[in-house]
Amino acid sequence: MSSDNNTLDPESAQFHTLPGRDHPLRFETPPGWPEESHLVMSYGALVAREWLFAPGGETLWSNFAKGRTLQRSMLDRMAYEIGFLTQLERRFERLPQ
């Protein structure tokens, strides 16, 4: 997909989730990122979603780490992390207070 030589300023990078309540997250690719980045973001969200809805499985950090190590480039790892953490954030926002 991309190489580790790619640079991205995290301060200026923006990503947007498209609306969808209980459906898996869908992502718009940030400007300047490879078109396929939304697929890696979606994969990260899927891994987080599987952890959320499969109690008694592996720990959160081990699920996160396993999916992250599958990504070949720094940009892919960032896309995976965005998807994973966005899914968790979305779920936590809905918890009763």
From TrEMBL:
Residues 33-91 form the LasR-specific antiactivator QslA domain. Residues 1-24 are annotated as: Disordered. InterPro entries: QslA (IPR040654). This is LasR-specific antiactivator QslA domain-containing protein. It comes from Pseudomonas nicosulfuronedens. The lineage of its organism: Bacteria, Pseudomonadati, Pseudomonadota, Gammaproteobacteria, Pseudomonadales.
